[in-house]
Amino acid sequence: MSFKTKRVLAATASAAVATLFLAGCAPADNGVAAGCEAYADYQGFEGTEVEVYTTIIAPEADLFVESFAEFEECTGITVNWNGTQEFEAQIAVRVEGGTAPDLAIFPQPGLLARFKDSLVAAPAKVSESVDANYSPDWKNYGTVDGTFFAAPLGANVKSFVWYNPKVFADNNYTIPTTWQELLDLSEQIATEGKIQPWCAGFGSGEATGWVGTDWMEDIMLRTASAETYDKWTTHGIPFNDPAVATAIGEAGKILKNPKYVGDVASIATTTFQDGGAGIVDGSCAMHRQASFIGGILAADYGATIVEPSDTSMDNGISVFYFPGTSADNKPALGGGEFVAAFADRGEVAALQHYLTTPLWNNAKAKLGGWFSANKGLDEANVADPVNKVAVQILKNATTFRFDGSDVMPAAVGAGTFWKEMTAWVAEDKSDKAVLDAIEASWPKN
Amino acid sequence: MINTAFSAARKTPWEVIFPNLILLIVALAAFAAVIYLVFLLASRVNVRVQEWLKYAVFLAPAVLFLLIGLVYPTLRTLVMSFMNADSTEFVGFDNYVWSFTIPEILIVLRNTFVWVLFVPILSTFIGLAIAYLTDRMKRPGVVKSLIFLPMAISFVGAGVIWKFVYNFQPNLDKPDIGLFSAISKAFGVNPPNWLLEAPGNTLLLILVMIWIQTGFAMVVLSAAMKNVPDEVVEAAMLDGAGNWQRFVRVTVPMIRSTIIVVLTTTAIGTLKVFDIVRTMTGGNFETNVIANEMYSQSFRQMNYGQGSALAVILLVCVLPIIAYNIRQLRRERAER
User: Fold this and answer.
1) Which residue among A45, A276, A352, B38 is the one 20 to 30 A from A430 at the CA level?
2) Backbone φ, ψ for residue B113 (5° rounding)
3) What is residue A320's DSSP assignment?
4) Would an 8 Å CB–CB cutoff place B246 in contact with chain A?
5) Chain A neighbours among B 148-187 (CB < 8 Å)?
6) Do B170 and A445 count as a contact with CB atoms less than 8 A apart?
7) pLDDT of the residue at A420
């Protein structure tokens, strides 16, 4: 509520400024005030308001609000940011109660499909802009039953291997570019015996095992095609399909190899936070984890996040891309938010359009801690070294897929998949027994 | 630029609180009026109706709350246990068949049985022993406080504390913070990964519950022992009964009913155990128990049918203990 109030005050002020601006300066030929040329597409909606309903709350929300300032000044449209952690439960209530927000930022595409009857199909301008600025995979995630509804917003990437650049430089390890090179490097490090090649931790309280599902998904996306990956997450192929068996087999080459990870069973009792700590104190060389672990390692384990080229710091950590089966097979696993409209009004479409433009994406990225899959996003505007790598990964990605366990039914994605991956390392359960057990748990209907 | 949305957004806390406060006062006034009306009516009817009304007025709120809070949810859970995951279709006994055939759930049932066997008996026994030993101590306060202290710690808190005690460090170069590991290393034994290895890990979790419950057993039993009349004990002494005999033949039989209450209360608490397992192992490594699996099925995996079936199984397990407890209380009352 507090930032909304702030926003309102700021909006009133900026609207007032805009009014003065428009009144005082002679408008340019196209009717746009000086300095606002880039906003020519969004004119004609002065004094209107757009409500944005979202899971993004303070402090991240403040940066979003800040990023709209120019848009608001130049168009006279007021953006009312309404963030709540109850979004996922409340959006249904609001839609059914007839008070749907103008724009909703869906944190995951699965939720989008439930509202396909209430949503407004994205206007041609939005659709064209998304075609121009995003890969088709991203557009697909915003499409339900052939109708494109939701434009991509922010992104996150999971296909990272974290490492210590100094350790790599001191030992002359080269960054692997294929899965085989990654295995070879692991073997090389293990043979040298100076340092353990990998660290892993599946422990996460009641959610123990999710780290294992991320490993599986990332590898599945590499050893199988994107189509097979989609069939796997939607049960188009059974969970114990040979394609899945291949993926878990490849994962096992690292995770179930005591030469690479030390005591395999204790992966299950090591928390995912502690799992990453090894690369900070130099007890292991590599750790596969999503971008967020950087913040944890920096805050709690004394790490400093550095550019991959910076090999000067003992506690410096950075990331490289979790490689594909060949150098030109570059899928990316991650997530992102999607903006869909419930209201068919010009100002709503204008904002939805604006959010897909390189103009806004660069402005937002400059404010820090954020990036998107927008092709027009200039890496120079992304300050954080890890986010910079993430932007490169997204740009080079041959395919992009969401975290599969989020797409699967909860009984699997938040149930047996976690549990069985845990048993896989903890009890040395066989690949087949793990896959069979998950397949048996897939809901019947 | 004046807009209703703006003024709505600018509300001060008082503007929000004030209408609610008014509403509260109105509600309280309405409640008082209803009560007054009830008493007014009651005073005007004849004695017989008055008698009946008396019961109704005093029982109605309790019955109402029981219906809403207990009976209705129980029936609903029962119905849901015969339905599919999202409660749209009846599936007969499928969920129960699932409960008693899937190997993972059989482990859950086995573990719950082990918990119910060990926790009440051991914590009552240890509590009884400590109560007897401290009974004639000059200053039992310190000892008893220390043993009772874990009662004040939440199950989750206890779980976190004991997780440190059982901590296992696979990397030999790194410092080990686990107490158990340190002890076993002191004896030259390589520590196992305590919480990982079944079935020992379930016993280690049970130890946490015993640690908590012993204090409760001790305090209640100690109070009961204070009520054993000195004359009886002295009579036994005169008859030549030794310390052990006095304890077994006199003290224990005289506090028998209290022991049963402690045993049954602990047993019910143990059947419901959830927090310890969830915080320490998350139900992995073959340590799962019914309450945790029920929660996980219902609220994590959205299998309301299977979750409800487990809830019903839990209820069926608790019922005989409660029935026994009530019968015991009745019999005791009759004796007095």
Assistant:
1) A276
2) -60, -45
3) E
4) no
5) 168, 170-171, 173-174
6) no
7) 93
Residue A147 DSSP label: E
How far apart CA A310 and CA B155 sit, in angstroms, is 47
Helix residue ranges, H only, A159-271? 165-170, 179-192, 210-223, 226-233, 242-255, 258-261
Q: Does B250 score more than 90 pLDDT?
A: no
Cβ neighbors of A332 (< 8 A, separation 6 or more) are A157, A159, A393, A394, A397, A399, A400, A401
Residues A415 and A290 in one domain: yes
CA distance A77 to A43: 9
CATH number of the domain that residue A292 is part of? 3.40.190.10
pLDDT for res B228: 87
Q: Residue B7 in 3-state DSSP? A: helix
Which tokens go with B255? 């506090």
Cross-chain residue pair A411–B85, CB shorter than 8 Å? yes
d(CA A339, CA A153): 7
The answer to whether A391 touches A371, Cβ cutoff 8 Å, is yes
Residue B181 with chain A: CB contacts under 8 Å: none
What the block records as the tokens of A84 is: 């709540």
A190 and A293 assigned to the same domain: yes
ipTM exceeding 0.90, yes/no: no
Residues A40 and A126 in one domain: yes
Most B-contacting residue of A269, A422, A429, A439 (CB-CB within 10 A), to test interface: A269
In this structure, which amino acid lies at residue A67?
S
Nearest chain B Cα distance for residue A73, angstroms: 14
Q: Which domain holds residue A20?
A: 2-157+334-400
Asked if residue B1 has pLDDT above 60, the reply is: no
Our CA-based measurement puts residue A6 at a distance from the nearest CA of chain B, in whole angstroms, of: 9
Helix (H) or strand (E) holding A318: strand A316-321
Burial of B148 per CB tally in 10 Å (0-12, 13-18, 19+): middle
Query: Rounded to whole angstroms, how far apart are CA atoms A249 and B167?
Result: 30
A170 lies in the same domain as A147: no
Chains A & B: contacts with CB separation below 8 Å = 87
Taking the Cβ of residue B105 and every Cβ of chain A, the question of whether any pair is shorter than 8 Å is answered with no
Strand A304-305 relative to strand A316-321: parallel, antiparallel, unpaired? parallel
Chain B residues close to A429, C-beta within 8 Å? none
**Are A295 and A345 in a shared domain?**
no
What is the radius of gyration, based on Cα positions, of chain A? 24
Q: Which of A204, A269, A411 sits opposite B195 (nearest CB)?
A: A269
In Å, how far from its chain's centre is CA B10?
A: 46
For residue A143, give the H/E element and its range. strand A143-144
| Contacts A268 to B, Cβ<8 Å | 196, 284-285
Q: For position B44, what pLDDT does the model report? A: 78
- Given a contact cutoff of 8 angstroms between Cβ atoms, the answer to whether B328 and B260 are in contact is yes
Give contacts of A 221-280 with B, CB under 8 A: 262-263, 265-266, 268-270, 278
Residues A149 and A164 in one domain: no
Which pLDDT tens digits describe chain A residue by residue (445 residues)?
444 444 444 444 444 444 444 444 444 445 567 778 889 889 989 999 999 999 888 888 899 999 999 999 999 999 999 988 888 778 888 888 889 999 999 987 878 888 888 999 999 999 999 999 999 999 999 999 899 999 999 998 999 999 999 999 999 999 999 999 999 999 999 999 889 999 999 988 878 899 999 999 999 999 999 999 999 998 999 999 999 999 999 999 999 999 999 889 999 989 898 888 889 988 899 999 988 888 889 888 888 999 888 888 889 999 999 999 988 889 999 888 999 999 999 999 999 999 999 999 999 999 988 999 999 999 899 988 889 999 999 988 888 998 888 788 888 888 889 999 999 999 899 999 999 999 988 887 6
**Residues in B touching A445 (Cβ below 8 Å):** 84-85
